[in-house]
């Protein structure tokens, strides 16, 4: 559970950053807290307030948050066998399906261990994430300018940390990430706030999978991508 | 008021997406296109968010040396395989430090 403690501290810190980002974007303290209590999926929450901070585009912000939230659907599909609960317990368990609980549960050697891990991580993170959101939001309301503390760089840092392991291991996903960033920046001056990020989702489909002809036409990346086994 | 509606809608949507995975037939996962899109979309969206947020988030891309420096520090920390916590602190401390220096 030493890993659990480290995870708790890290999530607590990003919870504080979320609370700060939300209030900086113009949300009230209760609005920030409701998002952490009821949405409870960090990247989506950051995406929503990021778009709002960028100047409106509420619908685009919500769409970006939901697109990011759709990866929890995938985790749910993969964890359905490990969490065989029905009725109210399933409804409660569903709320806990996020990056960290999925990573924890899917790494366990047996279904019983997976359930224990899921319940422990869910309970710990739910408490930490919500408490620190409140702290971050309240503190920001008092302090005002959080840029002086470098909190504005923290949102991007959280995202970078989330995708770093995948960029490290997977040349195709490096290409997807580079293309997505380029699309978003190119669209920034023309599209309404929030929309550039949505357009960038197309990069996920534009870069072909790791098939035999998959890497053709991608220049310098072709050699690296050829050695990839996953589909 | 509109903001509250968007927040509640986002919360409901995020919850339903989680519940859908737990309740849906597992066959869905066998569909290669579903699988590919679902596994790769987060990388695309998060990369786009990193780019947009580093550029200021507004419609005019702004180069803020302190913020860019913070994100670059996070990237270096990640390359050195630093823990999540250290990455976040490196980003915030670098941005704050550069601002203190007047950048």
What features would you describe in this structure?
Chain A is mainly alpha-helical and 231 residues long. In chain A, 73% of the residues lie in helices and 0% in strands. Chain A is globular. The C terminus of chain A is likely disordered. In chain B, helix 3 packs antiparallel against helix 4. Helices cover 75% and strands 0% of the residues of chain B. The model of chain B has no long low-confidence stretch (mean pLDDT 87). Chain B starts with a helix and ends with a helix. At the A-B interface, helix 1, helix 2, helix 3, helix 4 and helix 5 of A face helix 1, helix 2, helix 3 and helix 4 of B.
How do the strands and helices of this protein lay out in sequence?
The complex is a heterodimer of chains A (231) and B (103).
Chain A: H1 2-24, H2 29-39, H3 42-53, H4 58-79, H5 87-95, H6 99-106, H7 111-143, H8 152-169, H9 171-187, H10 195-200, H11 203-206, H12 222-226
Helix pairs in contact in A: 1-2, 1-3, 1-7, 1-8, 2-7, 3-4, 4-6, 6-7, 8-9
Chain B: H1 2-23, H2 32-54, H3 65-79, H4 84-100
Compose a concise summary of this entry.
The complex is a heterodimer of chains A (231) and B (103). Chain A has helices spanning 2-24, 29-39, 42-53, 58-79, 87-95, 99-106, 111-143, 152-169, 171-187, 195-200, 203-206, 222-226.
Task: Provide key terms for this protein.
heterodimer; A: 231 residues; mainly alpha; globular; disordered C terminus; B: 103 residues; 2 domains; 4 helices; 75% helix; extended
Rg of chain A, nearest Å: 19 Å
Give the helix tally of chain A: 12
Number of DSSP helices of chain B? 4
Parts with pLDDT < 50 across at least 5 consecutive residues of chain A: 211-231
Instruction: Choose one word for the global shape of chain B.
Output: extended
Overall average residue pLDDT of chain B: 87
